[in-house]
Automatic annotation (TrEMBL):
Name under which the protein is recorded: AAA+ ATPase domain-containing protein
Family according to the record: Belongs to the AFG1 ATPase family.
Coiled coil: 76-115
SUPFAM superfamilies in the record: P-loop containing nucleoside triphosphate hydrolases
InterPro entries: ATPase_AFG1-like, P-loop_NTPase
A single GO molecular function term of this UniProt record: ATP binding
Species: Eutrema salsugineum (Saltwater cress)
GO cellular component labels: mitochondrion
Alphabetical keyword list: ATP-binding, Coiled coil, Nucleotide-binding
Length: 590
């Protein structure tokens, strides 16, 4: 257990507004976060400076990856300009194609009118249109095959009139970095991501959980805006209503528009991908970068969703940078949906350079050995630790205002998560409250984004009896780490003994986000699986049987490694500069 006299020192270190660096620290996984290198500095320059300053230990494997990132970085400025020009040409092409499409549709409708196709409808045309607008009867449309042929013929004519879609400029190859826990994958990717700030307008960095949740959220939004539930309320487009043509012609045109919309609904993942990285605040389009941390394929949905979204992004010029514990071909060792997975990996290998960080060193542990003791991971669960935990809670909350209140955070799909005790960016929970209930990554992301300091009490040693809680705790640690939260906790055992399991057996780790109570999400999952002609047999309960012991070891080792790094002084220094809470405070002050 840590010494009580060290507590206040760590609090000052973690929560002061200065950028003071710890003396004598030679290793740090995220040390670059507390410095401000010039924006023109590439990843290799930043890495070399940190080594020279003694804040990183030189590692030839890391240097090789930093060099690869530097090569990619050097090509991005030109690619951004190429993509800006491409999007201008694309917008002009899309506008012209839409104008021509509408003209062709009107010509088709007028020809059908001349041929007397709607002669029998003359007496009832206005009435039918009114019913169509109000959704009281289905539109009078051609049989499905005829409609499909009509659509294809129109598309071919458009190709001959407008020309084919502008070719996407060849994107620089992205990077797929894989290696053991704590070898520096995320650090190097974040160095690269930070270097692109101000250079690339449309860029995002996601951890696996957050990316999958965003896919679900975008699917949900798309269905709400375009799905079947809106078909009964469908109204005719304004461009059709304003045409100086007969009402029955307008009805036919509306039917053609609706058919096009139905076809688009069958390809929901590409539609989601098109909005996945777009910066809604920017009116100008350009290159896009996706940094994806801890890419994995934990279940059938993940394989299908990732395949659909990533394939679309890579095809349309997005530069992908990904990290993982495994090489691409080893991600799906259980062979789930092999055909879809193999197509996705082939595309990934075509668009990314695959690099292994061969280092066996866990630098998070090295950093911890060269810093102070673990002063805010308190154990065991005895009276002394409980008193110290309460003392730290009072110290921190007093520093941030002292008034303890409850709060309700929005999650997604209209759900919320309750926060029993909070105070200006600081929150307190029990392990049972966060991990003993059927909640998941969406809830943990909401908590991590809103609170820079999280107190969690009464963390037990994990065993088979509480394997679901252990899985949730690992997901929770991932999100607290990804958002650079400060974690203060009381636990039954030291970190290295937390995931040892018991005589009952080892622990399973599904590592999947959860919506155990969400019927809407289940429907969305079914729709995506149906798109890939996939059965629902790949549900989380069936995946348990397929996960290997090696997957468990990766998950537990990563969680323990991250918990250790979260105790180090330099990690704590980064909280004030990296956590979303403080970024929001800066925005408010402006």
């Amino acid at each position: 257990m840590p010494k009580i006299s060290q507590i206040s020192a760590v609090l000052r270190l973690g929560f002061s507004s200065s950028r003071r660096l710890s003396n004598g620290s030679h290793f740090i996984a995220r040390s670059y976060c507390t410095s401000d290198p010039p924006k023109t500095s590439g990843p290799l320059t930043s890495y070399s400076k940190l080594v020279e300053q003694g804040r990183l230990q030189h590692d030839p494997y890391q240097e090789k990856v930093a060099s690869a990132f530097d090569n990619l970085f050097g090509r991005l400025e030109r690619f951004e300009k190429e993509m800006e020009d491409y999007h201008v040409r694309l917008a002009e092409w899309e506008k012209k194609r839409e104008e021509e499409r509408r003209r062709l549709m009107v010509e088709e409708a007028e020809k059908k009118e001349e041929d007397g196709m709607w002669a029998s409808m003359n007496k009832h045309g206005q009435k039918l249109l009114g019913r169509w607008v109000l959704g009281r009867r289905k539109m009078n449309v051609e049989p499905g095959v005829g409609k499909w042929v009509s659509y294809l013929n129109r598309e071919r004519r458009l190709d001959s009139i407008v020309g084919s879609r502008p070719a996407v400029p060849q994107a620089p190859k992205g990077l797929y970095i894989y290696g053991n826990v704590g070898c520096g994958k995320t650090m190097l990717m974040d160095m690269f991501y930070g270097a692109t700030d101000g250079m690339i307008r449309h860029r995002q960095r996601f951890h696996f959980h957050e990316a999958m949740l965003k896919i679900n959220e975008q699917m949900h939004k798309y269905w709400k805006e375009n799905g079947e539930e809106k078909s009964s309320q469908y109204s005719i487009s304004s461009w059709i209503m304003n045409l100086p043509v007969d009402e029955k012609v307008k009805e036919w045109l509306a039917g053609e528009e609706f058919y096009k919309q139905q076809l688009q609904m069958k390809h929901i993942l590409p539609a989601v991908a098109d909005k996945f990285l777009v910066d809604q605040q920017s009116s100008k389009k350009g290159a896009s970068i996706l940094c994806f941390d801890e890419i994995q394929t934990v279940d059938v949905f993940a394989i299908v969703a990732l395949s659909g979204v990533m394939s679309r992004l890579l095809t349309t010029g997005t530069v992908l940078v990904a990290t993982s514990n495994r090489a691409p071909r080893e991600l799906n060792q259980d062979g789930m949906q092999k055909e879809i997975f193999d197509k996705f990996i082939s595309k990934l290998e075509k668009h990314c350079e695959i690099i292994s960080i061969g280092s066996e060193v866990d630098y998070r542990r090295v950093a911890a050995k060269n810093s102070v003791e673990n002063v805010h991971y308190l154990w065991p669960l005895n009276n002394v630790v409980l008193e110290e935990f309460e003392k730290m809670w009072r110290q921190v909350t007093d520093q941030y205002g002292g008034k303890i209140t409850s709060a309700t955070l929005p999650v997604m799909f209209g759900r919320t998560v309750e926060v029993p005790e909070s105070c200006n960016g600081v929150a307190r929970f029990t392990f049972e409250y966060l991990c003993g209930r059927p909640i998941g990554a969406a809830d943990y992301i909401a908590v991590a984004k809103n609170y820079h300091t999280i107190f969690i009490s009464e963390i037990p040693a994990m065993s088979m009896e509480i394997r679901d809680k252990a899985r949730r705790f690992i997901t929770l640690v991932d999100e607290l780490y990804n958002h650079h939260c400060c974690l203060v906790s009381s636990a039954e055992t030291p970190i290295d003994e937390l995931f040892q399991g018991t005589a009952e057996g080892t622990l399973f780790d599904l590592e999947s986000f959860q919506f155990e109570t969400e019927t809407e999400d289940s429907r969305l999952r079914r729709d995506v699986l149906a798109e890939g002609s996939i059965s629902s047999a790949g549900s989380p309960s069936s995946i348990v049987k397929m996960l290997s012991g090696e997957e468990e070891m990766f998950a537990f080792a990563r969680a323990a490694s991250r918990l250790i790094e979260m105790q180090t002084p330099l990690y704590l220094e980064g909280v004030r500069f990296l956590h979303p809470y403080f970024h929001q405070q800066k925005v408010y002050k402006k």
